[in-house]
Amino acid sequence: MKYQFILPYLAACLMTSPSFAAETDQSPLGKQMEAMNNAFKAFRSETDSAKGAAKAREAQAATLKSVLEAPSMLKSMPDGPAKAKALAEYHRMVGKLYVTFCEVEVAFLDSKFDEVAKIVGSIKEMKKAGHDRFIEE
Question: Which domains does the chain have, with CATH numbers?
Answer without folding.
Answer: 26-134 (1.20.120.10)
